[in-house]
Amino acid sequence: MNTLLNIICSKKVKYSILILFLLFLYTSICAFSYVQAVSNDLSNSVFRLHVIANSDSKEDQDLKYVVRDRVLEYMNGLCTNATTKKEAISIAQSHLDEFKQIALDTISEYGFNYDVDVEIGNFSFPTKTYGDIALPSGYYDALRIKIGKAARSKLVVCNVSSFMLCRRKFWNCA
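The chain above was modelled as a monomer; its predicted structure follows.
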């Protein structure tokens, strides 16, 4: 027991423990810095679609998905040549009335009579995972479509990355 205490109290062990602690601290700081850098890069390169249903009822949730699909179909046609987030935002900004009309027509087609608000802005999003892509929580530029009262219903959030702008594969998220 005394020998063990001598080993633990030796300078070499103390220095080793200190070096291990500092290495752990350095690794933690580097990992945190990397995550922050990736998060900031994603936030600066992703344009999201945010559809909010009138309510959490099954009918309103189903309608939300149909509106999402119709808007995505239209946006995909518009963005075939877009290569940056800025271009996608500019295209979306110039077609806000069309997005609203697509949503209104879809809502009417399905027998509902809800109004729609469409806007582009920088909005808060929770962490969301799409297959092997995870987007951390934070503020992102987005096209937001609010159906009816949009009363805190479950969100449909889809994304457009600057390197895959408006491609159905990436936009079509559930």
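The chain has a mean pLDDT of 78.
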